[in-house]
Q: What sequence folds into this?
């Protein structure tokens, strides 16, 4: 019999120690992982409170079979330098202890081999270092001749507000080993944790003490069956590559005819709407741009007239008076805005009204579970940089142009204000960091030679990706990752289409989603997926990514109010989803849209 006894507490009941963050979540996640088929444990989870020792004794005493392998996990406070020897501290109105003498006796009498994992925080002790604490705990428990392995970690009490880095790493490594065919021993588990160098380096102190007999933490995939569907039938044919909505030549011709007819009968607003549709097909049509300028004037829309003049200037079709109009209202420096973009504007997709509501609902249904799995993926693939306090800018106090422009842009666009780390080099000079807390990275050379409006444009394109509906796109950015996420989701919700083929990458993602998607969230995602295939779901996610780039570029235009500047920066540094000319064409068409002009009006930056 393989038995896992897990205990953890937040220590909220005792009111004598700082509460420990994340212990309940860790207990749940670790219990789910160890109960899966490739681990094969019967799991008992307890609060680390008064009576724990008796509960462990009862579980071991009532076992119907000999306990061949016991995994005992404890996360909580420990008395490290107590005169009576180290002990585990148990929560309650009156604190209690689980003595090491009692724990050793249970291990020796009731089990054939064991792995003891102690994730401890030093209690009432501000002097003993984590490394010294681990040594004291080890010396009190370890006997080289006993078939008991120990994984011991310690951190100081002042880290209680943070989720334990040791247990987080343990959970991630166990997940990442889920595709393994051979068993995973205690020694190999610790070696795998050490191999994640940046995460292991974040542990104040951790040590493995080997027992005299091997201990298999995971049995390998020889035991995997029902938890995640195995690789199955031939892969489905790939769906067509996603394409953004376009106005074709036939629609453009009809729109131009409709516009002319409406203008002849004096319906200028109708004529303008039809002409906007035609310009979405060909924003470089100088004749159509000239008609748009005239129609804006007839509709008494000075801001639209000015934007049409800017578009004519950009493509070389403006006459002298139109050039003067464009130059007369071109903003200098940061916009003197009187308002900001609201959450309602974002939820109504004012920056991308052509988005499919069904696709948005699907992306939002993935939600936080997909973000959490994406963060784990970034750590596993070593995409997450080690961020030091020395590289972080205090946005409340910083006087740097880079930081101040970030704050201004986030406020104008109603976007989250993230943490900012300035590093020696960052791909693309700006990036969203794969971190739990919203964080952006900037290269040191970014602000060199850029004006404030140019920085605002760059910041807007970056900060848009911090929106909840965009965040998973930054975490599954490598080729094939959205496809793997789609296959994983179908396996978790139970696909109504053909059986899902899972490779090792999709299997890892499926395990992470399975732990986090429960109840109404799982039901909602299953409903939205319906009978869709993995390739069609992946295509919809990729299309959402393309629309996110449109939103980012359009937000940059709104933040600067300067079409020429936005076009120049787009040409020099286009977003990766399409070429620079296509992105510039979209900005021109959007600059004449009702949504853009309405946002400018509410921000107080519209001409006239």
A:
């Amino acid at each position: 019999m393989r038995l896992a006894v897990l205990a953890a507490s937040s220590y909220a009941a005792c009111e004598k120690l700082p509460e420990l963050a994340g212990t309940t979540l860790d207990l749940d996640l670790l219990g789910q992982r160890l109960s899966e088929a490739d681990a094969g444990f019967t799991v008992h989870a307890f609060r680390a409170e008064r009576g724990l020792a008796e509960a462990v004794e009862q579980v071991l005493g009532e076992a119907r079979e000999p306990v061949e392998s016991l995994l005992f996990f404890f996360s909580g406070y420990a008395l490290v330098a107590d005169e009576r020897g180290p002990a585990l501290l148990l929560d309650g109105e009156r604190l209690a202890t689980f003595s090491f003498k009692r724990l050793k006796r249970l291990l020796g009498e009731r089990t054939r081999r064991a792995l003891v994992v102690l994730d401890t925080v030093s209690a009432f002790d501000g002097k003993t270092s984590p490394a010294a604490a681990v040594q004291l705990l080890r010396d009190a428990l370890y006997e080289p001749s006993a078939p008991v392995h120990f994984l011991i970690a310690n951190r100081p009490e002042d880290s209680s507000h943070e989720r334990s880095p040791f247990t987080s790493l343990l959970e991630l490594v166990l997940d990442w080993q889920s595709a393994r065919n051979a068993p995973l021993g205690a020694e190999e588990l610790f070696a795998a944790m050490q191999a994640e160098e940046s995460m292991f380096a974040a542990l104040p102190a951790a040590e493995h003490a080997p027992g005299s007999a091997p201990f298999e933490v995971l049995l390998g995939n020889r035991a995997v069956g029902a938890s995640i569907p195995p690789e199955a039938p031939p892969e489905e044919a790939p769906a067509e590559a996603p394409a953004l909505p376009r106005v074709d030549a036939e629609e453009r011709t009809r729109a131009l005819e409709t516009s002319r007819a409406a203008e002849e009968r004096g319906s200028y607003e109708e004529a303008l709407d039809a002409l906007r549709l035609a310009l979405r097909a060909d924003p470089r049509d100088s004749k159509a741009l000239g008609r748009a300028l005239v129609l804006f004037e007839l509709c008494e829309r000075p801001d639209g007239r000015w934007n049409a003049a800017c578009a004519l200037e950009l493509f070389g079709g403006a006459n002298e008076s139109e050039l003067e109009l464009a130059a007369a209202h071109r903003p200098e420096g940061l916009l003197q805005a009187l308002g900001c973009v609201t959450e309602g504007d974002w939820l109504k997709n004012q920056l991308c009204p052509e988005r499919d509501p069904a696709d948005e609902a699907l992306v939002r249904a993935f939600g936080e579970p997909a973000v959490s799995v994406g963060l784990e993926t970034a750590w596993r693939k070593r995409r997450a940089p080690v961020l030091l306090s020395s590289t972080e800018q205090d946005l409340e106090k910083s006087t740097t142009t880079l930081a101040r422009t970030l704050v201004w842009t986030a406020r104008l666009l109603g976007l989250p204000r993230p943490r900012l780390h300035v590093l020696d080099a960052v791909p693309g000079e700006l990036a969203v960091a794969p971190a739990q807390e919203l964080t952006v990275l900037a290269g040191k050379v970014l602000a060199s030679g850029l004006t404030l409006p140019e920085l605002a444009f760059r910041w807007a394109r970056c900060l848009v990706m911090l929106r909840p509906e965009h965040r998973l796109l930054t975490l599954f950015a490598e080729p094939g990752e959205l496809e793997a996420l789609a296959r994983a989701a179908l396996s978790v919700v139970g696909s109504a289409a053909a059986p899902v083929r899972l490779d090792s990458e999709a299997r890892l993602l499926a395990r992470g989603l399975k732990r986090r998607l429960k109840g109404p969230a799982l039901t909602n995602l299953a409903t939205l997926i319906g009978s869709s295939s993995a390739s069609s779901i992946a295509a919809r996610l990729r299309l959402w990514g393309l629309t996110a780039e449109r939103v980012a570029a359009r937000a940059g235009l709104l933040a600067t109010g300067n079409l020429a500047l936005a076009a120049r920066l787009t040409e020099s540094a286009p977003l990766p989803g399409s070429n620079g000319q296509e992105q510039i064409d979209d900005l021109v068409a959007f600059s004449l849209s009702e949504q853009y002009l309405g946002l400018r009006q509410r921000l107080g930056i519209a001409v006239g």
